[in-house]
Each structure stands twice: as structure tokens, then as C-alpha cells.
Amino acid sequence: MAYRAGYADQSHLTRAVRGAFGATPLALRRGTLPPFKTRRAPAP
């Protein structure tokens, strides 16, 4: 699946998903996501 999505291998896909969502693909499938960290907008 990773190759079909344009990634070199499974670890490449896993790193990209973890960077974007903060969780592995398996955690996303299971619904066990870590709490999201929100960024506050800089003060004007």
C-alpha cells in the first residue's frame, strides 16, 4: 500500500503519517489517537 501511495516503503509512509497526525497508521485505524496539541496564533 505504501508503494502505491507514492512512498518508498512502509517506514517512509509511517514517518509521514506520524509527522502529520502525531500517531502511527495503526493507532489511527484503532482510534487510539494521542491528544492533539493546538498551536495558538501569535499575539498581534
Overview features:
mainly alpha; about 45 residues
What this model shows, in words?
- The protein has about 45 residues and is an all-alpha fold.
- The chain has one domain.
- The protein is built from two helices and no strands.
- The mean pLDDT is about 80.
Number of strands: 0
Main sheet properties: none
| Tally of alpha and pi helices | 2
Averaged pLDDT: 78
- How big is the Rg? 14 Å
N to C succession of SSEs: HH
Relative strand content: under 5%
Helix content: 40-55%
Distance between the termini: 44 Å
Low-confidence stretches: none
Structural class: mainly alpha
Shape type: flat
Number of domains: 1
SSE order and pairing:
Layout lengths: L9 H12 L3 H6 L14
Short recap of the structure:
This protein is mostly helical and 44 residues long. It has helices spanning 10-21, 25-30. The protein has one domain.
